[in-house]
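Section: Multi-chain targets

For targets with more than one molecule, the full set of components is provided together so that the structure can be written out for the assembly as a whole rather than chain by chain. Components appear in the order listed by the source. The example entry contains two components.
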Amino acid sequence: MLDLVNVEYDTLIPNNVNLSKDKRVQKALEKWHPGYINWWNDLIPQDFQNSLVYLRTAVSVDPKGWAKFDYVKMPEYRWGILLAPEVEDRTIPCGEHYGEKAWQEVPGEYRAMLQRLIVIQGDTEPGSVEQQRFLGKTAPSLYDMRNLFQVNVEEGRHLWAMVYLLQKYFGRNGREEADDLLIRSSGSEEAPRMLGAFNEETPDWLSFFMFTYFTDRDGKMQLESLAQSGFDPLSRTCRFMLTEEAHHMFVGETGVGRVIERTCQVMNENGITDPYDINKIRSLGVIDLPTIQKKLNMHYSLSLDLFGQEVSTNAANAFNSGIKGRYMEHRLDDDHKLGDATYPVTQLEDDKIVLKDMPALTAINMRLRDDYRRDASGGVGRWNKMMAKMGVEFEMKLPHEAFNRDIGVFAKKPFDPEGTLLGETEFNEKSKDWLPTSSDADFITSLMVPCVEPGKYAGWIAPPKVGIDNKPGDFEYVKLHIA
Amino acid sequence: MTVPVKQHLIDPEICIRCYTCEMNCPIEAITHNDDNVVVDFDKCNYCMACIPVCPTGSIDEWRVVKTPYTVEEQFEFDELPGQEEFEAGASEEQTGLEALDGEMAKLLAEAHSGAGGKAKAPASAGKASINLHNLGNPAVMTVQGNYRLTDDPSHDVRHIILDAGSLPFPILEGQSIGIIPPGKDDNGNPNLPRLYSISSPRDGERPNYNNLSLTVKRETDGICSNFICDLEKGEEVKVTGPFGSTFLMPSDPNAKIMMICTGTGSAPFRGFTMRRQRTNPEAATPMTLIFGARTPQALPYFGPLNKVPENQLLKHMVFSRQEGQPKRYVQDELRDMVEEVAALLQDENAYIYICGLCGMEEGVDAAMTTIAESFGQQWHAIRDRMREDGRFHVETY
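Its structure, encoded as tokens over all components, is:
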């Protein structure tokens, strides 16, 4: 019997898609594999490649088997092709083909659109690993180092997932696109990654936590929408990726939370009640809360740009053709076609922000961005609760969606974080209070010294409440290779 | 009278609201509002599918409650409520509850999760008492003996006999007790009890004495196992429990019992075997034991076991590190016993018990899958049916 839950480990590439029976794709992937390993080996510093990292690897895609923990050297991590189990008689959940049987092959008329969506998604995965390549050297603990590497290997696996789809379903074009995913490189002059947010280096750990909280969350929303695709192999791929993506959200939310917690703790220990007493707080070796807010402002606004134009015919076409659904499409209670429906979209009229009802079909991006904002505000609320509990009077806030934007109706307009339009000069004068400056960055960088003794944490971050895989506090999450 | 029940909760201070548990719950027992992700008590069937997928560990929380928290009440949680106190000795005959103590209930839920669903006691099993003694009111027992069972320097396994004196401490074979190691943990709180399977039968390590035995392996850095393995005769130990009300043996002497274990997982099966031996063994159907260890020297009770007659216990001992022999594991033995096992799987009066290190059930699972296929059936369907009947039990740590 064909076993679609357990993973085939007998081939070079672990998979649950019966790869050994599909010689053409197997050959294509095996040809791609050395390039991938080279990419990985060139990327991550050599000492870490030889270290034993306590990682989880999926041995099957059902809930019982996908989180097996063990020590592994990263280059020996079993990157593979894992799809969520096929849902019997699945139908297309949205658009004009609503209710028809889901496609197992690429529908000819949507080939180009599908391929483009998969390439864009695929391009972000290696991009983020490239951005984070130097962070291992300044890890605030072995626990955090492990989390970084777990995120990295899983982003690597997500690249595999997209490459499989390209090679299996998109012929020669797909193979070329798969090769290009290894050629483009984050921040490169000649061949940068496709989306802007993936071309900035992640310079420090607070940025990494903010990135995993805000930018990976965009990835999660995109995956949620693609998991609703009428193209079943894409849907199944994304559904399994989402389970892994949850860990990335966790790293971000608890990471930022632990930085805030540590700052509040040090403030309390030293009797500091004014969170704006920045110099004093910084002199104690922790990151002041207003600076954390500035980092939040930047990462949130950059991430909003990833949702594209508020009104978009591309997004409308993808939805209408059943290629990409909405967030939690199956839980929405409407006709899933949006023929006459409208959706309120923020627009700029004579420099005033107004909400206008637009055809819901063209407002798909706006809607996903709204879902994102709601999702992202949850963690912010929990950080605030923690500060209140610790008796520190400060609240983190998501800035207004018009603030610091490069894409969409607010692009390049000098709005402040409250959503008030300012003059260019005033904005430039005040922006140092809203966005991290180079001296903020220098200060944060100065704190980034590695702490690699098991159970110890750098002074600017609190230990986690619970260990990974329920391990005790002094567990050696990474057995460092000492050259 | 309200009967206490075990409730699965999520820690709202640790949870990040990724909803992965909700998406993985096969029966939609998990739901959320803007604040919290919660488990609906009326729907949850303890299948544990949500546990491994949680990235935070917030999902693995259990409370024993008189009245379950409703979904609405859980939406209002800012933090997890503490475990309510119960009168010592509350009986739980109707509920099938394992322990009236959140921490112990959690340990047992995890140990039993390898069975793939909610554990049930055999229909003819005795009625177990639980939680006669808790942290606030532990039983004090005296060490009557501490014997080394293995002849392998890296495997120090001990047979410990504890005497309860005049204290009532009724147990059944297969139950566990908590041992409270002295001292404090890293956070300065008194150490919590660790759970150990009882390895003696209900009428005492020695018939009609109020004592019981444990089988404990010394673990490097193990706070409690080192404490126990170093105990000397006459010392006193604080004990909680007993716990567990499903991993029990059927009273029916004709029940066909297959016991699969590794290492100290043999503890409950020693109890099972002794119970059979003390109750008319000639009239009973022999039980089958499949016991895996590294070497005969590392197999607890190797000597005494060999003396149990074959008409009472069919013994299959398998060794994974015996010099000059290929490595063999319990699943290899099962595969070799295909006809015998296949007959058991199709027998309505057959019981299977698995006990040992966490993960061993996977090898057994694979072997059972092959064996079930040999007669054209699905192992998981058979397993689920047996579990529902109280005839399939897993306890792995």
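Chain B has three domains: 5-84, 139-243, 256-396.
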